[in-house]
Design brief:
Elements lengths: L1 E3 L2 E4 L22 E4 L3 H9 L15 H14 L3 E5 L2 H9 L5 E3 L2 H9 L4 E4 L5 E5 L11 H11 L2 H11 L14 H6 L5 H5 L2 E3 L6 H13 L2
Parallel strand pairs: 3-4, 3-5, 7-8
Antiparallel strand pairs: 1-7, 2-5, 2-6
Helix pairs in contact: 1-2, 2-9, 3-4
Length: 224
């Protein structure tokens, strides 16, 4: 399964989908924003500052001066942040309780809110976004490789991928899962235009200086 870190928003609070991450800094958003307590928020601020141009991979290897600018940008956002979320259920509850109206999130939360009949919207802004791929792996030391292989074979089946998608809202690794989906499900998962959709997602890469990124992120959280 794979997915992006999109903008999730309360559709009743916006006349049209937000088209830029910069809306998070809008003074009208004071106390209404939620960010993920993760380095993805650092990547997002770096995108706002244009550090992904011309090479999106640079998001994962920023210089000290660029990280300082990212920190400054994120600290400027602090008055608008109602709360930083760490679990999917936490962000879903923030929306349902009307504590926030916009956030960086996952398709999982969008899916949960749709099932709860919450007026949720999801979009990738003009700056694009980061994203991830979830893997299942067999460890070298596994004592049940044959059983593990059978499990992996089951998980990649089209029908199984559809069942996982029903819960997570993530895009299935097996595109044949679409045969078990409604037109709305296919559209929501972007299976009708996967190639173009993926071009808007900068999939996570190794961060050589992860310790420095964590230091910057912790300084943002500790700032008043």
């Amino acid at each position: 399964m794979w997915g992006p870190d999109p903008i999730i928003y309360d559709a009743d609070a916006f006349s049209k989908p937000p088209d830029s991450w910069t809306v998070f800094w809008d003074p009208k958003m004071r106390g209404k924003v939620s960010l993920w307590d993760d380095l993805s928020s650092v990547y997002m601020a770096a995108q706002v500052l244009g550090y992904d141009n011309p090479d999106p991979a640079h998001l994962y290897d920023l210089s000290d001066s660029e990280l300082e600018a990212v920190k400054k940008k994120l600290i400027e956002l602090k008055p608008n942040i109602r709360k930083m979320w760490s679990t999917g259920g936490e962000l879903t509850n923030l929306f349902q309780n009307h504590e926030v109206i916009i956030a960086m999130g996952w398709p999982l939360m969008t899916n949960q809110l749709r099932k709860a009949n919450f007026p949720v919207g999801e979009t990738i802004p003009k700056e694009n976004t980061t994203g991830w791929i979830d893997h299942l792996m067999i460890t070298a030391g596994s004592e049940n490789k044959e059983l593990a292989t059978k499990f992996l074979e089951y998980m990649v089946q089209a029908k199984t991928q559809k069942l996982v998608t029903d819960v997570t809202g993530y895009t299935p690794a097996n595109p044949r899962a679409a045969q078990f989906m409604s037109p709305d499900e296919i559209r929501n998962l972007h299976l009708d235009d996967v190639d173009n959709y993926q071009k808007r997602i900068y999939f996570w890469q190794n961060v050589p200086r992860r310790a420095k990124y964590n230091e910057i992120w912790n300084e943002v959280k500790a700032s008043q």
